[in-house]
Amino acid sequence: MKTDVLASCLMLLAFADLAHAQDEPIATDRPDFVESSLTVGERRLQVETSVAWERDGDADAYTTPTLFRYGLGQAWELRLETDGWQSIDAPRGGGISGVSDMSLGLKYHVASELGGASLAWLLHVDLPSGAREVRGDGARPSLRLVAEWELSDSVSLGMMPGVIYDQGDDGRRYSAGIFGVVVGKAWSDRSRSFVELALPQIAHADDGGTVALLDIGAAWLLSQDVQLDVVYSRGLNDRSPDHALGAGLSIRF
């Protein structure tokens, strides 16, 4: 009896390893601004974390952006996102630091395609849950649509329009647009790079203005479930950070 139980357990483990080996390679929402249209898969957990540096004028900011994704089914995933530990060093204005706000979200991968595009909806709400020094004001919901096209065997195009309902320092609510477009190039089965225009905020000057960034980056698969990446961002106007760098690690369980 013990031998039969042991053999059954070994067979189950072998089947589980085979199922994971047949998985598609990990698809991450980083390092580009435009999210992936794919979900992580039923009952799969994916952690995407990084360290990031940003310079705006004389001020330096350091964060540890992290995203947790859990598959509620083949088409749905639950998301928990944060900038992690945030530290801002301003030579003339002192420094502040603390744990950043949390964002709760859902992603829904649309089964049908539109014009050959893979589609997904993302609904998030940023919560005023961080340390007092870096906490945002009120709950800030956002809605985004991701569309991805495979232009060839190695070139892809992604677009992400959206809208966020935010709150300014004066307590006044306002709506802002979101937009990103990215072109990706796969160099092999394990390496890819991208160039991207990212507009995380499109708003009136009284509401903080428009933030516009040019991003370039690359990612490497260490295995089907592990990815390393790097990204560099250059601000395109006075309301955007001058420079930013990030390096990330993503793992699927």
From TrEMBL:
Top-level taxon of the source organism: Bacteria
Cited InterPro entries: FApF
Pfam families according to UniProt: Phenol_MetA_deg
Signal peptide: 1-21
Alphabetical UniProt keywords: Signal
Name this protein carries in UniProt: Transporter
Organism: Pseudoxanthomonas composti
Organism placement in taxonomy: Bacteria, Pseudomonadati, Pseudomonadota, Gammaproteobacteria, Lysobacterales
